[in-house]
Amino acid sequence: MTKAIVYLRMMRPANIVTSVADVLAGAAIAGVFSSELLRGHLQGIILLCLSTACLYGGGIVFNDVFDAELDKLERPERAIPSGSISLQQATIFGSILLLAGIVFAGIYSTTSALLATGVALFALLYNKTSKHHPFFGPLNMGVCRGLNLLLGVSILTEALPQWYFLAIVPVIYIFSITMISRGEVHGGNKGNLYIASLLYGLVTGFILCFSYRNNKLLLTVVILLPFLWMIFNPLLKAIKNPIGKNIGAAVKAGVISLILMDAAWAATFSTIYTALFIACLLPLSIWLAKIFAVT
Asked: Nearest to residue 259, comparing CAs of 44, 40, 17, 93?
């Protein structure tokens, strides 16, 4: 296996597609996908998509860096414990990715750069410290996704004061997934899975409320139905039998299904074309998930 493939595997390409969907959803919330604004902000959208791809990839690489010793026992097939790349090489690679993410955002605006810096710092905090805490770990990871959504909203700086509170939705959703993932190696407890199902329902209700207010309820429901099927089908299997394999499937489905949740945001705040464009990222993420690990 070439070094390039090893580095690519460490970045979790399927997950990166979901982070791009977050930014596109944020841009849809800001309103730049209208015919009047899209042309003038297309370069900015590309820059912010590159930014989030680098930030997510860098965060994931540092996850493997800080877990190198643990992975020797639990996941020896990963790049660092298997000896495919050294700890130093992984650290340099992760640092370059995080820095590139901030730079891409900074090229667009100072506000975007600050949000990107926040994502990078919270990613490092999670990987270094908070991931070991049963509450602050999932919360920390959720904050990363919330800031990522706002990174997309920052395509129009003036939209941030109006819509910043929507970051609570990905915070809750990712909190749920991260909480579930704690049982991926050794199996989980049903209590966490039941709590996650309730939080999934809360997130869905939040989106439906906004879609109703914006007179987009029918379109949003059409997208939310497959979203709910994707997340609850494996989750119910995990509740029935909370072994590591089933937990892993529920986590994988939860991560990839973010694309449909982002498409639902686009349906609520933008047009059907924007929602379908984001939803089209789902097959790409699923295909990548068959080649590269998601968790």
From this structure: 17
